[in-house]
């Protein structure tokens, strides 16, 4: 009797390695974020804050592209949807759910 072939679950690290090298972060940014030695909790908090900021920036860019104009500008003629404040969002990531804020539309 043939045994089923079990596929190994790919780890986050192996998935990242398959995508290629990670982007380089500017030294100035790292100097601003890391002022000296950090505890594991401080490293984790910094990573969570950085992750949240990136997700919020990406969601804002997606909303700009969808609506066709940036925040603070009048909506273009013919655009039915418009910005309507911001609301909380939960994004499911490989590292678990993350809270963020995203522009709302109406």
Automatic annotation (TrEMBL):
<comment type="function">
    <text>Required for the transposition of the insertion element.</text>
</comment>
<dbReference type="GO" id="GO:0003677">
    <property type="term" value="F:DNA binding"/>
</dbReference>
<keyword id="KW-0233">DNA recombination</keyword>
<dbReference type="GO" id="GO:0006313">
    <property type="term" value="P:DNA transposition"/>
</dbReference>
<dbReference type="GO" id="GO:0004803">
    <property type="term" value="F:transposase activity"/>
</dbReference>
<keyword id="KW-0238">DNA-binding</keyword>
<keyword id="KW-0815">Transposition</keyword>
<protein>
    <submittedName>
        <fullName>Transposase-like protein</fullName>
    </submittedName>
</protein>
<feature type="compositionally biased region" description="Basic residues">
    <location>
        <begin position="1"/>
        <end position="11"/>
    </location>
</feature>
<dbReference type="InterPro" id="IPR001207">
    <property type="entry name" value="Transposase_mutator"/>
</dbReference>
<feature type="region of interest" description="Disordered">
    <location>
        <begin position="65"/>
        <end position="106"/>
    </location>
</feature>
<feature type="region of interest" description="Disordered">
    <location>
        <begin position="1"/>
        <end position="24"/>
    </location>
</feature>
<comment type="similarity">
    <text>Belongs to the transposase mutator family.</text>
</comment>
<dbReference type="Pfam" id="PF00872">
    <property type="entry name" value="Transposase_mut"/>
</dbReference>
């Amino acid at each position: 009797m043939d045994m089923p072939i079990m596929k190994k679950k790919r780890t986050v690290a192996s998935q990242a390695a398959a995508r290629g090298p990670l982007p380089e972060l500017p030294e100035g940014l790292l100097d601003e974020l890391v002022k000296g030695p950090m505890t594991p909790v401080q490293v984790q908090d910094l990573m969570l804050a950085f992750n949240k900021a990136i997700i919020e920036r990406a969601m804002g860019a997606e909303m700009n592209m969808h609506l066709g104009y940036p925040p603070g500008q009048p909506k273009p003629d013919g655009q039915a949807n418009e910005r309507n404040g911001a609301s909380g969002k939960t994004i499911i990531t490989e590292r678990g759910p993350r809270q963020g804020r995203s522009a709302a539309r109406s």
